[in-house]
Specification:
The complex is a heterodimer of chains A (310) and B (563). By secondary structure, chain A is mostly helical. Helix content of chain A is 75%, strand content 0%. The chains are: A mainly alpha (310), B alpha+beta (563).
C-alpha cells in the first residue's frame, strides 16, 4: 500500500520537473519554420492543452493516467503508452539477463574468494570488484564498443540484431546482448563478491557449519546448502539497490549500445520536451521499480524462512 | 598480481594494434546491377511519416523517399525545376501559379497521380490542428476560410485538364512562392485515394482532420522511389523499391534507415561497414578519409554559425554602437576558428546569403580580417578609453565587460567561446563565458529578454535566399529568430518578397543590398558556413552528393552496389 503514495509523489514531481525546466515544446515543434504566425502557435498550444493552468493540466493528466491513458506524444502523435509498450520488452530483456548474469558471476566469485581466502584468486577477485566498481558504466561500455566492436570486430557495436536478421531469441540476439548485458551485470559483479566474501567467511566459522562438517557431510554440500543460503540474505537486501541501477541504468546502456529500449525513448523525449512520453516513461519505470522491491521482499522470505511476507 | 595486470594490458594492446583491416570489396562488375540493400545512418528515430505533421529532419529524411513534391531544386544550381510536375508558370502579375503534371506519374499501386492529391494535401494542412505548416498558404485565396470551416474546399486551388494541372491563386504577390508551393505546404504530397477513408477533405466540419490515423506511420503507397515496408521503433525503417517510380525503378531493392544514438555511433557503424552512407562531424572527417573502405564527399551546407549581439541591453550600451560591433568582428579571427574548430571544413561568410545560394554576391562586402589594431581604433572612435587594467572603459566609465553564452553540449560552440574570450581580451574587451543547456540558452536569449549580450548560435536556411524569416522586424518577437531586433532592412526584405518584379535578377539585386547593410551594421559577427560532410562505402556507385535537392538523394534511382 505504501507504493501508492510513493507513485503519487513521483507523479507530482515528474509533472513539475518537466513543466518547470526551461524552453517550450512548441519551439521544438516549430524548429526552423519561420512563417508560422503567433495565432498558429497559440492554436498549437491549445491543441496540446498547454494553454491551460498548470494545476488543471496536472489533474487532467493524473486522472487519465489512473485509467492508463498517458496522452499522445507531441511529436509522433501516437499514444505514449503504445510507444512505451513497444520498448519495455527490449529493456526487460537486458535488465533480466543482466541481473541473472550479475548474480551468476557475482555470487560464485564471492564464494570462491571466501573459500580461497588469501590466495591469488581471492586477490584477483577483490581487485576486479573494486576496479569494476570504480569505472563508470558509460566508460566501460564505450571501451567495449571501441575495442571489441570497432577494432577487433568480435562483437557488434550495438543494436538488437544484425541488419536483415529478424529473429526473436536466437544466437544473433544473444551475440548482440553480450555487451549491454555485461554492462548491466557490472553492478552485480562488482558488488556481490565483496559482500558475499565477508558473509561466507563469517558463516564458515559458525557452530552449525562445524556441526554439518562433523556429521560427515561433503564440503560441497556444506557450502551450497548451509553456508550459501545463509550468506545470500544480505545479497537479497542488495538486490533492491541493484534493481534501481538496472532500471535507471537503461538510459546509459541503451544509449551506448544503441538498444531501442525505454531508456533511449526517455532520453529522446526529454531532449524534445515531449511531456506525455517523459511523464509516462518515468511513471511506468517507477512502477516497475516498486514492483521489483515487492519481488525482493518475496525473495527475502524465500532465503530466510524466519521472514514472513504479509 | 602485477604480472597478471601487465600481461592483460599487453595482450589487449597487441590485440587492438593487430586488428585486421576491413577487407576491401572485390570488384567483379562495372556495369550497374540491380539489387542489394543500402543502409542510411540516422542519429534519431523518426516521429511520423505524415508530412503534414512532420517537424523533424529524421522523419522528413524518410518520407522524402516516399512522398514526392511537384518541384525540386536543381542539384547544382538550386533553381526550382519540375519533379512530379513537368513545368510551372507564374503569371506576369505574380498572382497565379500553374503547375502542369507529368503524364507518367502514378502511385505505386497504379492509381494515377493527379492535382486532386495536391489539393487534398493542402487542405489536410489547413485543417490539421497539429501542423506547423499553415504559413505556406497565408497568401492563397480561400485558404483561411477553409481552415475556419467557412467553405468545404480551398477556393484558390483548382485542378484542370483531367487533374493534370493545378492552379493556385494568390491574394498578393509572393515572390518565393514557386520555391514553397511545390510540396503543398507539407513538403510531400499524400495520396487522396488512400487517406480519404480516414478524412474526407470536402467538409466544413473543422473538428475532423488527418492528425490521427494509422496510415500516418504506415504509408500505403508512394510516388517517390521507395515504398514503406516496416518500421521498428527506435531501430529502423525498411523501404523497398517502387517499381512504378516515374524516373524508372531504383536499382537498389531495399533502403534501410537505421537509427543510432548519436553521431559517434553512426561513425562507428560506418567504420565497421554496417552503414552504407551517412553524414559525419568535422572532427571525424580526417580519420575517415584515411580508411580505404570509404569515400568522402564535401560540399557547402545551408547553415552558418554566428555571434549575435544584443543592441538593446542597457547593461552593455556599447553594443548599440555600429563601430563597436565592427570592432568585435575585426577582433575575432574567424579563419582560425574555421581551421581549429571546423578543421578547415568551412568557408568564411560576411553576410546572410550563403555562397551556395543563387543570390550570393560578395562584391562590396567588407571582408573583416583579424586586425587587433583596427578593432582598437574603432572602439576608441566609438568613445571608449583604455583603462589601466587593459580593459576599455565605455563613455559612462564602466568597463567593456560582457557575457557571451552558448550551449554546453556543442564542442564547436564552446571552443569558439574560448577563442573569443582570449582574442577579445587582446582588444581590451573582457568576456564572461556562460555555458548552459540548449533549451535554457534559447529561452534566455530571446528578443524579449533584456539580460543577454552575446550569443553563439547557428542557423539553417531553406534553399530560397529570402531573409524574411531571420531578419524582418516581424520576426523580432518573443519566439522569433530575429533575436537582435534588426529592423533596418524591412523595406528591402519586403520588396524582394512582394515584387512586383519577382525575377531572379531583381531579387538578387535587392537581397545583395540587404547583405551590404548587414555587413556594415554588423548585428551579427558572421563566423562560417560549414561544409556538409558525407561518406559512403566504396561499393556504393552512382552516389554523387550535391548541395541542393535533399543533399545526396537527387539521383537515388541510379545508385547501385558493386559486389
Amino acid at each position: 500500500m505504501q507504493a501508492i503514495p510513493t507513485l503519487l509523489g513521483i507523479m507530482v514531481l515528474t509533472f513539475l520537473l518537466t513543466r518547470l525546466s526551461p524552453a517550450d515544446p512548441i519551439d521544438f515543434m516549430v524548429g526552423g519554420v519561420t512563417d508560422i504566425t503567433a495565432a498558429d502557435r497559440e492554436a498549437l498550444r491549445e491543441a496540446y492543452g498547454l494553454n491551460r493552468p498548470l494545476p488543471l493540466q496536472f489533474v487532467d493528466w493524473a486522472w487519465s493516467a489512473v485509467r492508463l491513458d498517458f496522452g499522445k506524444s507531441f511529436f509522433s502523435h501516437r499514444p505514449a503508452l503504445q510507444l512505451i509498450g513497444e520498448r519495455i520488452p527490449n529493456t526487460l530483456q537486458l535488465a533480466v539477463a543482466g541481473l541473472l548474469v550479475g548474480l551468476g558471476l557475482g555470487v560464485p566469485l564471492g564464494v570462491v574468494a571466501a573459500l580461497a581466502r588469501g590466495s591469488p584468486a581471492d586477490h584477483t577477485i577483490r581487485v576486479l570488484s573494486v576496479v569494476l566498481h570504480a569505472i563508470p558504466d558509460f566508460f566501460l561500455g564505450l571501451l567495449f564498443v571501441l575495442i571489441l566492436g570497432v577494432q577487433l570486430r568480435w562483437f557488434p557495436i550495438g543494436s538488437m540484431n544484425t541488419i536483415g536478421v529478424d529473429c526473436g531469441f536466437c544466437w544473433d540476439r544473444i551475440w548482440h546482448m553480450a555487451g549491454p548485458v555485461l554492462l548491466y551485470a557490472n553492478a552485480g559483479i562488482a558488488t556481490y563478491p565483496r559482500y558475499l566474501r565477508t558473509e561466507v567467511l563469517e558463516i564458515l566459522g559458525q557452530d552449525f557449519v562445524r556441526t554439518a562438517r562433523s556429521k560427515g557431510l561433503r564440503e560441497r554440500i556444506v557450502v551450497a546448502v548451509h553456508v550459501l543460503r545463509n550468506a545470500l540474505i544480505p545479497v537479497v537486501s542488495l538486490l533492491g539497490g541493484i534493481l534501481t541501477i538496472v532500471i535507471s541504468g537503461s538510459v546509459i546502456v541503451e544509449q551506448v549500445f544503441n538498444w531501442p529500449g525505454l531508456g533511449r525513448l526517455l532520453f529522446e523525449a526529454a531532449q524534445n520536451k515531449d511531456y506525455p512520453v517523459v511523464q509516462a516513461s518515468v511513471l511506468i519505470g517507477s512502477a516497475l521499480l516498486l514492483a521489483s522491491y515487492i519481488l525482493r521482499d518475496i525473495a527475502y522470505a524465500w532465503v530466510d524462512p524466519r521472514i514472513k511476507v504479509r | 598480481m602485477r604480472r597478471f595486470v601487465v600481461a592483460f594490458a599487453v595482450s589487449l594492446f597487441v590485440a587492438v594494434a593487430c586488428a585486421p583491416a576491413p577487407a576491401a570489396p572485390v570488384s567483379v562488375a562495372d556495369k550497374p546491377v540491380a539489387g542489394g540493400r543500402i543502409v542510411d545512418g540516422f542519429t534519431s528515430d523518426i516521429k511520423t511519416l505524415q508530412p503534414v505533421l512532420s517537424s523533424d529532419t529524421a522523419s522528413s529524411g524518410v518520407w522524402n523517399l516516399i512522398y514526392y513534391s511537384l518541384t525540386r531544386n536543381d542539384p547544382d544550381t538550386g533553381e526550382v525545376v519540375g519533379q512530379l510536375a513537368e513545368k510551372y508558370e507564374l503569371s506576369s502579375d505574380g498572382l497565379t501559379l500553374t503547375y502542369t503534371l507529368r503524364d507518367n506519374v502514378t502511385w505505386s499501386d497504379g492509381t494515377p497521380f493527379t492535382g486532386e492529391d495536391y489539393k487534398y494535401t493542402a487542405e489536410a494542412v489547413m485543417r490539421s490542428k497539429k501542423t506547423i505548416r499553415k504559413g505556406t498558404f497565408d497568401n492563397v485565396v480561400g485558404a483561411k476560410d477553409y481552415a475556419d470551416g467557412k467553405t468545404d474546399g480551398i477556393a484558390g486551388i483548382t485542378t484542370g485538364a483531367g487533374g493534370k494541372t493545378v492552379t493556385i491563386k494568390f491574394s498578393k504577390v509572393f515572390c518565393p512562392a514557386v520555391n514553397q508551393m511545390g510540396g503543398a505546404g507539407a513538403g510531400g504530397i499524400i495520396p487522396k485515394h488512400k487517406f480519404t477513408q480516414y478524412w474526407d477533405s470536402k467538409t466544413t466540419d473543422t473538428a475532423k482532420n488527418i492528425d490521427d490515423n494509422p496510415m500516418n506511420m504506415e504509408p500505403a503507397v508512394a510516388t517517390g522511389p521507395f515504398i514503406f515496408k516496416e518500421y521498428k521503433p527506435g531501430d529502423h525503417v525498411t523501404l523497398v523499391r517502387n517499381e512504378k517510380f516515374f524516373r524508372g525503378a531504383p536499382l537498389i531493392s531495399e533502403y534501410y534507415v537505421k537509427f543510432y544514438a548519436d553521431s559517434t555511433a553512426v561513425t562507428n557503424a560506418l567504420k565497421v561497414g554496417e552503414v552504407t552512407w551517412t553524414g559525419v562531424d568535422p572532427k571525424d572527417y580526417e580519420e575517415l578519409s584515411k580508411l580505404d573502405t570509404l569515400r568522402g564527399f564535401r560540399f557547402p551546407s545551408f547553415s552558418n554559425g554566428y555571434i549575435g549581439w544584443n543592441p538593446s541591453n542597457a547593461k552593455a550600451p556599447w553594443l548599440a554602437s555600429r563601430d563597436v560591433r565592427q570592432a568585435l568582428w575585426y577582433g575575432l579571427d574567424t579563419k582560425t576558428i574555421i581551421d581549429k574548430v571546423l578543421f578547415g571544413l568551412g568557408k568564411q561568410v560576411y553576410a546572410n546569403t550563403l555562397p551556395t545560394m543563387w543570390a550570393y554576391d560578395d562584391s562590396g562586402l567588407n571582408k573583416y580580417g583579424y586586425d587587433v589594431k583596427k578593432a582598437k581604433e574603432l572602439l576608441e572612435k566609438a568613445g571608449a578609453k583604455m583603462g589601466s587594467d587593459g580593459v576599455y572603459r565605455w563613455t559612462d566609465g564602466q568597463p567593456i565587460k560582457m557575457k557571451i553564452e552558448t550551449n554546453s553540449d556543442s564542442n564547436t560552440r564552446t571552443t569558439i567561446l574560448q577563442i573569443a574570450q582570449e582574442q577579445y581580451a587582446q582588444i581590451g574587451v573582457k568576456i564572461d563565458p556562460l555555458l548552459e543547456s540548449f533549451p535554457a540558452l534559447t529561452e534566455r536569449t530571446r528578443f524579449s529578454k533584456p539580460d543577454w549580450e552575446g550569443v553563439i548560435l547557428g542557423i539553417s536556411y531553406g534553399t530560397d535566399p529570402d531573409p524574411y524569416g531571420v531578419w524582418h522586424s516581424s520576426q523580432a518577437t518573443a519566439t522569433g529568430l530575429n533575436r537582435v531586433g534588426w529592423n533596418k532592412g524591412d523595406q528591402l526584405i519586403t520588396q524582394q518578397r512582394d515584387g512586383p518584379d519577382c525575377s531572379q535578377a531583381a531579387r538578387k539585386r535587392i537581397i545583395h543590398e540587404h547583405d551590404v547593410l548587414l555587413n556594415q551594421e554588423a548585428p551579427w559577427t558572421f563566423l562560417y558556413n560549414a561544409d556538409n560532410l558525407v561518406f559512403s562505402t566504396k561499393p556504393l556507385q552512382g552516389f554523387e552528393p550535391k548541395p541542393f535537392s535533399a543533399g545526396s538523394l537527387w539521383n537515388i534511382e541510379k545508385w547501385w552496389l558493386k559486389t
